[in-house]
Amino acid sequence: MNVSQYISNKIDGADAGSFTSSVTKIAIISIAMGLAVMVVSFAILEGFRNEIQNKIFSFGSHLQISKYDTNNSLEVEPIGGPRLVQDLRGNPQVKSMQPFARKTAIIKTKEEVLGVVLKGIDEKAGQSPMRQNLVAGKFITFSDTAASNDILLSRKVADKLRLKPGDKALFYFIQTPPRVRQFTVSGIYQTGLDEFDEAYVIGDIGQIRQLNAWPDSLVGGMEVTLRDFNRLDPVADNLYENLRYDLKLDKITDQYAQLFDWLQLLNRNVVIFLILIIFVATFNMVATIFIMILERTNMIGVLKAIGATDNQIRSMFFFRGLSLTVRGMFYGNLIGLGFCAIQYFFHPIPLDPENYYMDRVPIHWDPTIIIVLNAATFLTSLLAVLIPTYLISRIKPVVAIKFD
């Protein structure tokens, strides 16, 4: 331990009960609360973003490939599924592919009539991400020999039609000739996103193939999940250049632009908020070191008189500020991570799904963000410590010893 650090530790113990002691406690609380708020804010923001994105991806993945059609209808011309899979399989950025098809229908019960979109899915390529949205009943039971009669209704559609798992419903398909199918409600899903919950019913793609008289090799389109969503734009451009001329590619960020714009707006607001928090914590640290220097002016004068250099005295206050910073960060992490853990495991803070798309405050654990926040707090606090210590070089020993 060098002399500056030794004197800093002695000052720390000698300040107990003084005005400086109160100020240092405020500095520690400021750093702790600032860091805790930043950790919680980013955990909640990332939780919101991931929850909403996962709900959107469960319906449309990252990319959708379908037949180019100028009428912009939900029902599109079929494409060859096996050939498209073969074209996409060689791309290292493609993680998985799921075929789909859509068909408009009218659901009629004894009491209600409602227009919906039946979306057919197939789990031969892997489990559907829609499973994560199931809130009641069971998922569709697929068969290799026949199309399943099971369907999933959203909570909103089920409430409007007064249907529950196990009930049967008649679907009327407007085509030539008109068709009627009776389906069994196997489960209820809920995403909280009105774009999906108010319109879509999930079923077996085999039913749509039968209604449209398609062979098993045809699908309405292909949903493509990428390995890295952050590379969506360049990968989409690359895939589009290699697609056949009669196919189109839609990015999920374009299909639901309003939701992704809202998420971007949240990011900007949180960044501005966090900059203000860091500024306040930094200002408090600067004020604290200034007060320490003023209260120790006599001691600074004595140290200079016996030969201590400005750098040695500056180091003394630097170590003091470093000690306050480390303590503040320790309590900040304890408070922030503790709050996140309680919310993550016990969910004490609920949300209204009608307004927030989910029923509780979400928490996402990202070690990289936590490390970056700690590093940013540590560096800005140390910078705040260094700024007032340069006042020491202006203090004259004779004047400082007489200072009261």
TrEMBL record:
Leader sequence segment: none
Topology relative to the membrane: Multi-pass membrane protein
Entry keyword set: Cell membrane, Membrane, Transmembrane, Transmembrane helix
Example of a GO cellular component annotation carried by this entry: plasma membrane protein complex
Listed InterPro entries: ABC3_permease_C (IPR003838), Lipoprotein-release_system (IPR051447), MacB_PCD (IPR025857)
Residue stretches spanning the membrane: 26-45, 270-294, 330-349, 369-392
Pfam families: FtsX, MacB_PCD
Domain ABC3 transporter permease C-terminal: 272-397
GO BP: lipoprotein localization to outer membrane
Keyword hit for Transmembrane helix: yes
Location in the cell: Cell membrane
Domain MacB-like periplasmic core: 26-238
UniProt family annotation: Belongs to the ABC-4 integral membrane protein family. LolC/E subfamily.
Protein name according to UniProt: ABC transporter, permease protein
Organism for this UniProt entry: Hymenobacter swuensis DY53
Taxonomic path: Bacteria, Pseudomonadati, Bacteroidota, Cytophagia, Cytophagales
